[in-house]
């Protein structure tokens, strides 16, 4: 295990070739021999998310924060797991265990994105120390927080309010800022090992820092791993849910399979069938089986990540810094066993014709099972990001700064055992009994089978992001309420994505590569005007601040956007602050939404409500759309923060949010429940039942088949290409409460509560469709999510308990509609620091025990069919199939 972590570190060191950051880092190493002094003031002390003006919290918007203690107590193995614990974050779309919603189909390297308010995985902007970083994924999707070691996080700040006027594209639902530790002195190491039912995880990490006169350096490294979790290891994940009161969603692609001749089905018996035993076939019967049971619910993942910060004061007026990260993540995902609906011609020597049949072809719904190797997906995501910059003190409190960033991300996903459609057709048409394919339950020649599951598929992606920022901020003049402060700046981004696809089979591989690029030039300004303050406070007007911000972004490919934001903070009395904001935001299309890296047809199983939820095979088309325009949003918020004088250790925060989100780019490629909303697609051509043979012939002539075997009769066609279709209107409230109990003889107590409560979540699937309230329905935001905590400290002991709550909701994909139970889980953290131990080598050691899902509660039962994107007895978007995990963590400060 240690060797594997060492090898990962070596790969990262070799890969971290961007140069500038490492050069600066190692140039500072001689200073490590100097006498240690108090760490200087660093940019971290003035970095506040949501405002471009130094030291000012965003006016009109609330900031949710996770500090270093929260990170330690969370028990999270990755930074992504840490952020997923926040109630405002929803697991819809881009995560390792749920890929059925927007963005999921392109998440083939199993990364994790942050989805604030359930508005989409690309509607949240994730920053590193306030700067954009190169996105991950073969399609250049979004920054995966897992690239940052958890041991390197000082805090995470979340502004769940539109912020495009401050930061530009993607900040529709808000901003998440990952802020690195800077003032570490000495060395900290940590070993974490956790285990659950058929699952285990580990984390090895270290951080070192040193200060010298005017400067500081910090370097952190982490190796993390978790095993795969197979569907075989969770009893509630199954196709037949009748025992729990649900439906039977098993499929007919079995072994032995189901024969269809002239529209009549026949279950092939266990021993197979030949023409001599054709009398054993019973009309109007079929075999049913659970093919997806063998797939992984969570892939195996291993990651190595490194992060560093370096700052140096050149003199009293000039300071420089460098910071960045390097990360590598590998994955292995085992999918369902290979199955297909085969067309068998009469020339096949094993052809079975029921008495009186004159059919020249027939179909067999068939599962190859272990006859073909499992089509396991493997791949990696590697990212490097470095920044260099500096600040100059100008005059008064004015300061100017510049930052240059360079990032490279390389992703690859491949599998080697997809169905070879041409070889299958040839084997079925073969007239030689020794080499023809027999799908009727008999044995098959291994040499024949070896040719059927050897198609390769690879998805590469290499993104290069270059950024430049210049800004200046300071006070303009003084008012009785305080200083009027201004920030102005400009930004430049250039992003290049090298993408495409690999295919074919051994000896006949083919590759398609193309380059996509985009340049963005931006200018912004932000002004804070204090109308009332300490010098001119009046009753009811203790403080009144107004913040006005605006930004212009000019894209080389999708035009220009202008976005304003106005925020107000009003303190009518001491301890009570009222706030409100109004602004517009936008999100530019991903380059691969304009032009997809792979465009083709996929054979998929869909849940069909007209058949009681039974699964039918359909064909979906993937692809981009050059006519896409940016998504746009109008956001409003207001709220209050109260720190009552009679409870000086208490803080009560409440905020209302309103988001009107239009022109949303959607694709229904990964949505295997799309038929449940079929009526809303009328007239769009997205859903086409029983497409004509001519229509399918035209599609097959134009697009390659990228997955599965096209059935002889296609019952369903879904256009899964990208389109500006959807509209969302979201309304609700956020709550953030904390209270530090005065010190008691038994220790110190701290209580915390964070929750989000939606009042409505209305969506229109197309521009012409009516808005429908989807709140509290499956695969949409829940009405109420909350996480409460109680922390206790005494002497060297620390304990924290967490309660996570998600309300009940409606499963309207089931017939009849199902009410899914609420879900409550409990997590715990207990730690003891050995500072007073008489053994010197134990001083600085902390031993912690973490338990996730303390009572090992299974996910609530959900009556939905299994799919390759999760589901089948439970809802992977709101619950984890892992269950209880008990982990031991040992850390030491040197």
TrEMBL record:
UniProt entry keywords in alphabetical sequence: Cell outer membrane, Membrane, Receptor, TonB box, Transmembrane, Transmembrane beta strand, Transmembrane helix, Transport
Sequence intervals crossing the membrane: 12-33
Sequence ranges assigned to domain TonB-dependent receptor-like beta-barrel in this UniProt record: 379-854
Subcellular location: Cell outer membrane
Cross-referenced Pfam families: Plug, TonB_dep_Rec_b-barrel
Domain TonB-dependent receptor plug: 62-175
Primary site of residence: membrane
Keyword Nucleotide-binding part of the UniProt annotation: no
Similarity comment: family membership: Belongs to the TonB-dependent receptor family.
Protein's name according to its UniProt entry: TonB-dependent receptor
Species annotation: Roseiterribacter gracilis
